[in-house]
Amino acid sequence: MTFALTLFAACLLDASLGEPRRYHPLVGFGRWASAVERWLHADNRWAGIVAWAVAVLPAVVLLWSVRRVVPFPVTCAIDVLVLYFALGRRSLGEHARPVADALDEGDLTTARLAVGRMVSRDTEVLDASQVAAAATESVLENGHDAVFGALFWFVLLGAPGALLFRLANTLDAMWGYRTPRYGRFGSAAARIDDVLGFVPARLTAFTYASLGHFVTAWRCWRTQAPIWDSPNAGPVMAAGAGALRTQLGGAAPYHGQWEERPILGEGDAPDAQTIRRALRLVDRGTIAWLVVASLGGMAAHA
């Protein structure tokens, strides 16, 4: 019962408060990681491994140690707060809904600006369908990164697991690029994030498929995910696009050049309603995960 209440309390905090506007722990971690990078950066993989360990492990070990010595009520409070900080479901809606609203109003300029806060591509050259596709892709992928992945590792290893996943995911977003600076140094951050996300990404894909058009989602997952460049984003976005019966992926502009990407999903071109349906898909998935995790936790302690 305590486990179930912890899950629901953390999700309720996220739904009610969203991400902290000031003093967000992940913002502080980002600054710490940037400092570690300045101290330890070198153009080799070993430097990246050491930097990853220095950036991530102290916080995880400290959390694990504190939970072992504080009273049980304090442990519960810590668990709720850590999971709350690891979740970002409300933030998804706060970023995605302005894109959908602007598209509904025919205001492509505002829609481009809004989706630019969600993705790294050159949004100023996107048409309305491409804007909707970018926002939908972000919602589906971040459903895994900011919701289901954190829940999975919390269920498996408690608050330290959720913290480990979220910090590793943040470092991948900071260092996991194939650029001259990060190609070797950031490879450890990218690979560790891939490993930690492997199982929850596939559970996320199954969640999307189960709560949408299952046959289409399964077909897209099986045939399209293997050719996507990310081993975890591929299943998540292919299954999500199939579940929504929409077409995502395709060419996208980065740093002034259009890059060819595989097509994901099948069906109609995305629009404002596709973004909203993706958000509802994540919402339904979150409820399903909470129910299953809570029942499993209670059964394990029966």
TrEMBL record:
Mode of membrane association: Multi-pass membrane protein
Location in the cell: Cell membrane
Keywords of this entry: Cell membrane, Cobalamin biosynthesis, Membrane, Transmembrane, Transmembrane helix
Taxonomy, superkingdom: Bacteria
Residues annotated as transmembrane: 46-64, 69-87, 146-168
UniProt pathway annotation: Cofactor biosynthesis; adenosylcobalamin biosynthesis
Pfam families, sorted: CobD_Cbib
Primary role: Converts cobyric acid to cobinamide by the addition of aminopropanol on the F carboxylic group.
PANTHER family: COBALAMIN BIOSYNTHESIS PROTEIN CBIB
Family: Belongs to the CobD/CbiB family.
Name of the protein in question: Cobalamin biosynthesis protein CobD
Organism for this UniProt entry: Luteibacter flocculans
UniProt gene name: cobD
